[in-house]
Specification:
The complex is a heterodimer of chains A (117) and B (397).
Chain A lengths: L2 H26 L6 H4 L18 H25 L6 H23 L7
Chain B lengths: L6 H15 L4 H38 L15 H10 L11 H16 L19 H22 L3 H32 L4 H6 L5 H4 L1 H15 L23 H26 L13 H23 L7 H29 L5 H35 L10
Helix pairs in contact in B: 1-2, 2-10, 3-10, 4-5, 4-10, 5-6, 6-9, 6-12, 9-10, 10-11, 12-13
The chains are: A mainly alpha (117), B mainly alpha (397).
């Protein structure tokens, strides 16, 4: 049988266990909601202001840099698999590819995009 | 064929006979047997998870010079079961204004992302869920579901601390995926395949000896991926209260907590598979698959022990220090390591066994030492910029 079908089966069975556990918790627990119990936690005081704080732009920059390097490594995996059978040319080619992207990292570094504040 | 040599095939054949005897088609019988097999594996994993809670609590206690739970049962062994019962009978509150669907889905996805990783872990040469030829990529893909569940939990809880904690945690997790992916290339280069069974079979010399720096970087990046100390700013019990976990109680919190411990055990297992030979131990795995499973579990426990050791020894790091460490030190070092490994592999390919190993170890040591020297001089420059150059103190008589 197709091996990805087994993986799909694992997904389904892997969902059954947490769903089952949480369902048992829901069944067995008392259900007595009251507004004080359900108010959100803020160190003992009433919540002040909106709960969805302003999104720092820095997270977006880190996600972009991560995306570039993630796609790069996904492209490098087939290269790594066949590296044993290809000659020195493939090694040099892979090194040039990595160096181009490391140059991109150095560029972001110098531009100050990797700082937190 | 002896039962002890190939138990899965014997059981599967017998069950197929039973099911087709009852009148099912062979395809349906196969699917049912696969379903039962996965159910068995996941049940065993949950039992292991329960004992991981016990191990964690006893070991953290010993690190902190105390005993840990010892009231319930001998050596406190019944304690995790009491914990499960307590979590199950707690009330299932939902904070007001929370997004109900996403709020309830997050712990389920978090636990699921850990359980599906065990589909590709080779327990023995003939016992594994699926022998995917893209095993390495599957690990990363399944790990990203866990990252998604943290954002879901944080965002849907309608709580400022939850949102901030979740954003920070996810920023750290995706940042540390880059060096982890880069050093996962190195066992792939050595084994010539992405499948985990092939990687284990080609480890006549453990890859730890061929590339110790890669094993170290994988360990650091994996600890950051798991969200454990010293990288656990979001859950740090004294930082943002409990990060994305704040509004969760009862079994949902139990799923996050148990999922994190099982995730740590799983990555201990992957560290063992990729760098320490997996289920291999000088030919012991050919004797019986059960011995191979025992070897793998033992090595995974050792990896888990190292992860726990780091957790209870090292101080928590601030988020800007974490991200600077990742993007300015780990990522360049890991990419340089990949380039150097590829080059040395091509240069030393036809060489003798000992020359190959020595060449690889030396290249790793040189890369590690040079990068530490660069980091040290950069730190010295930074310190002098802030504090002024060091004054030589004259001795007063």
């Amino acid at each position: 049988m197709n091996e990805w079908l087994y993986v799909g089966l694992f997904f389904i069975v892997g969902l059954i266990i947490p769903v089952g556990a949480i369902a048992v918790g829901w069944l067995l627990g008392p259900k007595k909601p009251n507004p004080i119990k359900q108010s959100t936690y803020e160190c003992g005081i009433e919540p002040v202001g909106e709960s969805w704080v302003q999104f720092k732009a820095q997270y977006y920059i880190f996600a972009l840099v991560f995306l570039v390097f993630d796609v790069e490594t996904v492209f490098l995996f087939p290269w790594a698999v066949k590296l044993g059978q290809l000659g020195l040319f493939a090694v040099v080619e892979g090194i040039v590819f990595i160096l181009i992207l490391v140059a991109g990292l150095v560029y972001t570094w110098r531009k100050g995009m990797l700082e937190w504040v | 064929m002896n039962f002890w040599n190939d138990p899965l095939k014997i059981a599967a054949d017998w069950l197929t006979g039973v099911f087709t005897g009852w009148g099912m088609t062979p395809v349906a019988a196969n699917v049912l047997i696969a379903f039962l097999g996965t159910l068995l594996l996941i049940t065993i994993l949950m039992v292991i998870d329960i004992f991981l809670v016990w191990i964690e609590r006893k070991i953290v206690a010993r690190f902190q010079d105390r005993i840990g739970p010892n009231r319930l049962g001998p050596f406190g062994l019944i304690q995790p079961f009491a914990d499960i019962i307590k979590l199950m009978i707690k009330e299932d509150t939902t904070p007001q204004g929370a997004d109900k669907v996403v709020y309830n889905l997050a712990p389920m996805l978090s636990m699921m992302s850990v359980l599906i990783l065990w589909a590709i872990v080779p327990l023995a040469p003939v016992m594994l869920g699926v022998d995917l030829n893209a095993g390495m990529l599957f690990i990363i893909a399944a790990g990203s579901i866990g990252t998604l569940s943290i954002i879901m939990a944080g965002w849907s809880s309608n709580n400022k601390f939850s949102v901030i904690g979740a954003f920070r945690q996810v920023a750290v997790m995706i940042s540390f995926e880059v060096p982890m992916l880069a050093v996962m290339l190195i066992p792939t280069i050595f084994a010539g395949s992405m499948g985990l069974n092939d990687i284990i079979q080609s480890q006549n010399i453990w890859f730890f000896f061929l590339s110790p720096l890669a094993a170290l970087i994988f360990l650091i990046a994996a600890i950051a991926e798991l969200g454990r100390a010293p990288f656990d700013l979001a859950e740090g019990e004294s930082e943002l209260v409990a990060g994305f976990n704040i509004e969760y109680s009862g079994m949902k919190f139990g799923m996050f907590y148990a999922g994190e411990l099982l995730h740590a055990f799983t990555f201990g297992g992957f560290w063992a598979i990729m760098f320490f030979g997996g289920y291999r131990f000088f030919g012991l795995e050919k004797v019986s698959p059960f011995l191979a499973i025992a070897v793998l579990v033992f090595k995974a426990m050792l990896g888990y022990w190292v992860i726990m050791w780091v957790r209870y020894t090292v101080m928590r790091i601030r988020i800007d220090q974490m991200l600077a460490f990742n993007w300015k030190f780990l990522t360049p070092v890991s990419f340089v390591l990949v380039m150097v490994t590829a080059l040395m592999n091509a240069l030393l390919k036809g060489a003798d066994g000992w020359l190959y190993v020595t060449g690889m170890i030396l290249s790793n040591v040189i890369v590690g030492w040079v990068s530490l020297e660069i980091a040290r001089s950069a730190a010295k420059q930074e310190r002098e910029r802030i504090e002024g150059p060091k004054q030589v103190v004259e001795a007063h008589h």
